[in-house]
Amino acid sequence: MGVNVVPPLPSGSVPPGTGAPAPPRPDAAVPSTPGEVRALLDDAERLLSAARALLDDDAAARTAVQRALSALRSRAARADLAAIPSARLKDVTDGRLRLGVLEQAGYRTVLDILDATPYALQLLPGIGARTAAQVHAAAAQIARAAEETVAVRIDVDHREAETTHLLIALHRLVSAGPDLPRAQRAAGAVREELAALLPAAQPARGRVRMLLAGREGRHRAREAVAEVAGLLAAARASGTPLLLGQTSVDLLRPPPSDIEAWSDFELRPPEYYNLLAEIAALEPDRVAAEGFLPDSVSTRVRAQALDDTHRRVSLRGYQAFGARFALTQRRVILGDEMGLGKTVQAIAAMAHLWSCGERHFLVACPASVVINWTREVEARSTLAAYRLHGPDRAAGLAEWIRAGGVAVTTIDSLHRLPVPADVALGMLVVDEAHYVKNPAARRSQAVAEWCARTERVLFMTGTPMENRVEEFRSLVGHLRPDMVPEIRGSDAAAGAQSFRRAVAPVYLRRNQEDVLTELPEVVLVDEWEEFSRTDLAAYRAAVAEGNFMAMRRAAYAVPGTSAKLQRLLELVEEAAGSGRKVVVFSYFRDVVAAVHEALGGRAHGPISGGQSSAARQRAVDTFTAAPGHAVLLSQIQAGGLGLNLQAASVVIICEPQVKPTLESQAIGRAHRMGQTRRVRVHRLLTTDSVDQRMLDILRGKTKIFDVYARHSDLAASTPDAIDVSEQTLARRIVEEEQVRLDLPPAAAPPPEDPIAENAAG
Question: Which residues form the Helicase C-terminal domain (predicted)?
């Protein structure tokens, strides 16, 4: 038998089941002796067995989720059925049934009838066997409809057995991580090809078999062996055996305990909800999830491939559509409401382009979110992130130019970014793009220049553009000047959906109410900022003095240059664009005063401990009664207890609290019965500071407590049980920061009671 070479697949070909372009198969020498062939086919059978096992294990895990979900839906549906009067059965049977006898016998709800048997119903006077069967069948039909439409909520404060079983079932798939979809596709492709090739190749295992196979059989066997050799070579080159093995191990891990499942869910709820949405088909209405785009655009976007090789996070359906929209339309505005993951969609688009050979990406954003961007890129993708802002920007720029990745800079410094002309950008992302609405501003002109040298541009803004047509025209002028004359104010006047359809080639926006059909009602976002130069000086002085409380509020020492305060104003502005009410909490009176002044006095309150309860309530009442957007300021000790703030759906906490219960109580003022909108909590934090040290210490202690007693009677009755000693915490953090900053210890220790200074009266 001669040595044959398997020709590589054409570049960009798509192996069955992968859904993404794959590199061509490497040339592979075909074994020429029966022994070599047997070894090759044994390897192929092992790979096929591994692929089948992974797919079987994955199917079993998903079946377990479906069973747990069915039980949860059944329980939730039963609660609904108990509130549906039995008279509703007439709607299902076109009014043919006489139900008076059933009601008189105590069968007043659909649940009552469902829990009975047709035989028990038949025993009632005037109810025959046929009627009993029809009544019970009608109740079962309503029950099935209720189960299909019931909302699936995972409530950490009400840990029913059915919900716990669902989390345990989901945990296996969540633990497999973002590699699971790739492993599924690889296993599917291996199974499809090898299942067809191996039977045809079997005669090549020995000379006698080849003789008995006949001329045509021998020819097929040689071709099959050649194809198997090529497939195995490609699988080894792409790491498929290792991927399948590691994923199978993850899928076969023992189930977690109840406490472990709940703790893991609280650490990463998006992963659980993403899987739940995929398995249970909980995705929102497609038209709304696609931003009410016309079919001509949405069909083209859905057809766009989205490679996930360099992505470390699963996407919701609407997020994948957003990334595809950016790739397909090339120069667009992503205007999703805050909280829907615009950053993740941008990262997904860049990760896809990296797989296609692009190597340089540039993000321009406000200084307040530079850190967030670099952290998100590194956490959500395999791409390297470089901060071209601050003292190390020159080194970061040089490394980015050399190695590629995602460079993150500020919009204001974009005009002086020295990027060589031969460095081609795969994509330019401009976050908070409404900042470049003024064509005469230097920042707008810099963005325009970069747009002119970049083929793909993604503008991101949470401000609804249908309310700001002139701003929208200005932004579109950077992207698609040809479209500007087509943008009419009458389109916006016709409503948000009409406007979005009219500008579909360049604009995509989804609202929370349209797409977040089952996410938890509270979403916590840590907003990491950097000290400004003046704030850093104030912080170093406070550390040198050993003044713990001054360290905590140093980020607001000079309001005019405060990065935290700037981010707070951005969050308030974005909430205003969506008509959302905001409550701002701080432990310190002077921080609340600084926020009040920065907002130009257009805020209710502030609420403080020195006020009477009646005065506090009046402030809350006026805030609640205000039409549309409004802001309420409060010290966290005063506003976190005894007040109902469910009018607010955005909560901003100006600094982390020594007592974690202060934060949870303050959030609970907004997240309570009567709240009709999902609550977003933004905690403003400064990197490499007292904020980071506090979180590192407190997270460790609260995690230990969560595992054992978070929902125990003791925890509910004595919330201070999880709070570490304030004095010990203050002293430890001061000492660690003095060492880190190489500052001599202060002559005096930290205040004996660090909570007392500058606190509410």
Answer: 564-715
Q: H-helix or E-strand containing 420? A: none
3-state DSSP assignment of residue 307: coil
- What is the predicted pLDDT for the residue at 323? 98
pLDDT, position 549? 93
If phi > 0 it is left, if psi is from -120 to 50 it is alpha, else beta; for residue 584 that is: beta
The b-or-e profile of 2-16 (16+ CB within 10 A means b, else e) is eebebebeeeeeebe
Whether 306 and 171 share a structural domain: no
Residues 358 and 491 reside in one and the same domain: yes
76 pLDDT band (50/70/90 cuts)? confident
DSSP state of 719: G
Q: Is residue 754 part of a domain?
A: no
Q: How far apart are CA 155 and CA 226, in angstroms?
A: 55
Q: Please give the pLDDT value at position 536.
A: 93
Going by the DSSP 8-state scheme, the letter that residue 46 receives in this structure is H
In this prediction the pTM is 0.66
- 498 and 558 fall within a common domain: no
Query: Are residues 81 and 142 in contact, defined by beta-carbon separation less than 8 angstroms?
Result: yes
If asked whether residues 589 and 707 sit together in one domain, one would say: yes
The winner for highest mean pLDDT among 28-37, 424-433, 509-518 is 424-433
Q: What is the mean pLDDT of the chain?
A: 83
pLDDT the model gives residue 197: 93
On whether the CB atoms of residues 286 and 310 are closer than 8 A, the answer is no
Residue of 598, 605, 679 whose CA lies nearest to 639? 605
DSSP symbols for 79-133:
HHHTTSBGGGHHHHTTT-S--HHHHHTT--BHHHHHHS-HHHHHTSTT--HHHHH
Which of 497, 515, 533 is a domain's end point? Answer: 515
Answer for the pair 530, 565: CB distance below 8 angstroms, yes or no: no
The strands making up 679-686's β-sheet, listed across from edge to edge, are: 522-529, 679-686, 650-653, 582-586, 631-635, 604-607
Pair (680, 634) in one structural domain: yes
Structure tokens at 760: 């509410």
> What is the Cα Rg of the chain in Å?
31
Q: Identify the CATH number of the domain in which residue 399 sits.
A: 3.40.50.10810
